[in-house]
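Supplementary Note 3. Input sequence used for the single-chain structure prediction.
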Amino acid sequence: MSFILWLGAAVIGYCCGAIPFCLLIGLKRHGIDIRKHGSGNVGATNLWRTCGFRSGLLGFFCDMGKGLLPTLLFKAAGGEFLGLTAGIAAVVGHIFPVSIGARGGKGVATMAGVLLVLAPHTFLYSFFVFLIVGPLATRTISGGSLAAAALLPFVSFTNDSTLVASVCTLISLLVIYRHRENIRRLYNGTERKIWEGRK
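The predicted structure, written as discrete structure tokens, is reproduced below.
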């Protein structure tokens, strides 16, 4: 694998991840800057609460797609390592997009897109845990996301290559860190429920 190809995967992956789809959907469809409403986060959950379920769902799939597409493209072009490079870069781009001051989302949807390409069984296990802990047990998006992120390394080391599992561990730690405020609210019992405040 040439350095140019590897660099291209990293740059293109980051640029895809850095597109703030949820922010753009809020602005273009509703004339609302979601950074100034709700939690202030530019992810799909805040878009949903601020602009409605349909826009939130659209934002989720756009954020998922910007992890899935570059990973799929570069995996086809150069194998697992190249696809993983693009996927990692997409997640980093989503969390730290330079276009909006490196204040992006929390990486869950974009990471899901990467997993769907590189580790589909791990994706399914993680999604199942998200559903059980999120909508059913805690009735919070953050609760499900944190549970899925915490379990991700263990499931990945069981099902995937060491390389993929190691990267999943690092990204899961980053996702958990990005949810630190949610962890405090969950502990205090003040985290907003899934259907609370929806439109």
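The chain is about 75% helix and 0% strand. Residues 1-106 form one domain.
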